[in-house]
Amino acid sequence: MTLKITDWKRKLTTLEKIDTTSLNSIPDDIITIDEIDSAINALTNHVRTVVEKCKREVPASSDRRKLTPDVLELIRANNAALHCASAYPTTEYRSRA
């Protein structure tokens, strides 16, 4: 069994690149509803493509010691963000990794 994880740092730098064919197709002056729909579709497709390119499969191991160091770092960062966002931290947000 495998899980798909997203490399958020890579996704961010990829999203910052605005000189792409999908984004260049968005007109500067959007006037009609069709142009709005087209711009939304272009942006949605761009984001969807970037997210898919920044995903990779990892083993879904219950033993975190078998995970790679970068995955453990992502788990720690996620737990830290959840801990900071919670007014009442619980053991649910803690990692023993």
Structure commentary:
The protein is mainly alpha-helical and 97 residues long. The chain folds into two domains: 1-60, no CATH class; 62-97. 53% of the residues lie in helices and 10% in strands. The chain has helices at residues 8-16, 21-24, 33-53, 69-85, and strands at 2-6, 55-59. The protein has a two-stranded antiparallel ribbon. The longest helix is centred in the middle third of the chain and has 21 residues, at 33-53. The chain is elongated. The two termini are 20 Å apart. The mean pLDDT is 77.
Task: Please give a quick description of this structure.
The chain is mainly α and 97 residues long.
Question: Any descriptors?
Answer:
97 residues, mainly alpha, 2 domains, 4 helices
